[in-house]
Amino acid sequence: MADLRINFAGIESPNPFWLASAPPTNSGYQVQRAFEAGWGGAVWKTLGDPILNVSSRFAATHFNGQRVAGFNNIELITDRPLEVNLKEIYETKKRFPNHTIIASLMVEPKQEKWHEIVKRVEEVGVDGFELNFGCPHGMAERGMGAASGQVPELVEKQTYWAKEVATKPVIVKLTPNITDITATAEAAVAGGADAISMINTINSLIGVDLDSWNTVPHVAGKGAHGGYCGPAVKPIALNMVAECARSPHINVPISGIGGISNWRDAAEFMLMGSSSVQVCTAAMHHGFSIVEDMIEGLNNYLDDKGLASVMDLVGRSVQRYSDWGDLDLNYKVVAQINNDVCINCNKCHIACEDTSHQCIDLYTESGRPMLKVRENDCVGCNLCSIVCPVEGAISMVELKNTLPPMTWNERQAIMNQFAPTTNVK
Amino acid sequence: METYEDVLQEMAAIDAMLAEGYKFKVVYENLSGTFAELEKQSNTAMLQILTAEARKYLAVKLKEQVTVT
Fold first, then answer.
1. How many domains does chain B have?
2. What is chain A's percent helix, strand, coil content, to nearest 5?
């Protein structure tokens, strides 16, 4: 039985599964039920000046029969007074002293505002703070949230102000609505952040109703951009976590957020550098009890891998995440089709013929339709294996005896040695 | 659409030049592909490599020449 306890920037937690700052962590009632279900921690829904929310706040992308492939919200931070939230935080922490409560905070970019809210919230016994520099809607228009989070100087300054008065760890939550998240991550570190978390939600519009021409969702016939999350964003979030984890300029713990739905997703984020993970959409879709499978699944995985502690997983794949220019150009895989498993839907042939390298041939053998890859022409793009609906019908096989390894950067260095000394057309 | 036959042809052309004792002198790339100028004593030859796989092969041969010299 592996040890799932984590120590995140000095914050002890019984396991790495935290609820993200969002509707599931709006109240003490909810957070306490979550802790009863097994969640290790919760980031309380963002505290600040109480806002007003609209009705019709959420929408989702459903894809090919899969409900909630992605999720969009135009809900803002807490609409409850600070004192109400603080009372419930205090009560929750008293009832669950060993569980982690992080208070998410968002105020105007003014030093006195940050000092006030940090001091007041710290008094009720939170284990740490998460500074919300990421809400892409509603708050950004008021100079907060993503509007702060897209400006490194503001990230650094506000982090510094919070750290001036906080005695508990300060986590800075970063917006993905930016060209390079490592820039704001570095700014957070420069401001004194004890840790960073990412990603917040992505600017999005779910869709347009083809009958009414309204946006989805709409509020009395009008829409506004919202924040996208859920399984669809996992690759974007995982990349951003990995880019920060591999940066030599960012040496603080990372809490990974973005489409984590099960223990596998959590393990992937941890392998790419997260030492805690935060979940929202999956809990909203399936309820708090999903954490039971997450805990059991992660435990079993660690046992299978011979790892005694979940912390042994953190960052183990980071060194494998590289720049494109350092990938081996001469590494070669090719597709191989198992005709005993293949159902002859021909999707591989169609995809390859129309959109890739035209190297999957149809033929007949003893009256039976067959498919074969011309390996010499196969570039190993993986497309056929991706579109194939049958597990095991197509394998991508590594070829031996290819050329010696050479990266693009190495190639360019060699080419430069033979470059002409005069301009050649 | 490049075929494996095109790749083999271009690789064979590189190997043939090297087998005759030619060495790479100048190599450059532009919109039309990779151009390799080879020389052997006072003789020069030019290869234009179009296929991606043969361009990778060329880089390996360039590295071999650099390593030896």
1. 1
2. 35, 25, 40
Query: Is 3.60.40.10 the CATH number for A328-398?
Result: no
Looking at the predicted structure, is the pLDDT value of residue A270 above 70? yes
Chain A contact set for B64 (CB, 8 A)? none
**Residue spans per domain, chain A:** 6-320, 328-398
Q: Any CB–CB contact under 8 A between A423 and chain B?
A: no
pLDDT at A354: 98
Say whether pTM exceeds 0.90.
Answer: yes
Torsion of CA A178, A180, A181, A182, to 10 degrees: -160
Q: Which of A353, A360, A415 to mutate to probe the B interface, most B CBs <10 Å?
A: A415
DSSP SS3 for B39 = strand
Helices (H), A96-131: 111-122
> Is A345 known to be catalytic?
no
Q: How far apart are CA A229 and CA A258, in angstroms?
A: 6
Instruction: Categorize the per-residue pLDDT at B1 as very low, low, confident or very high, splitting at 50, 70 and 90.
Output: low
Helix (H) or strand (E) holding A83: helix A82-95
Q: What is the C-alpha to C-alpha distance for residues A47 and A86, in angstroms, rounded to an integer?
A: 9
The ipTM (two decimal places) reads 0.95
Class of domain A6-320: alpha beta
Any idea which of A114-123, A144-153, A170-179, B25-34 has the lowest mean pLDDT?
A: A144-153
On whether any CB of chain A is under 8 Å from the CB of B18, the answer is no
Q: Give B4's contacts in chain A (Cβ within 8 Å).
A: 374, 376-377
pLDDT for the residue A136: 65
Query: Domain limits at B63?
Result: 4-68
- Name the strand (E) or helix (H) holding A371: strand A368-373
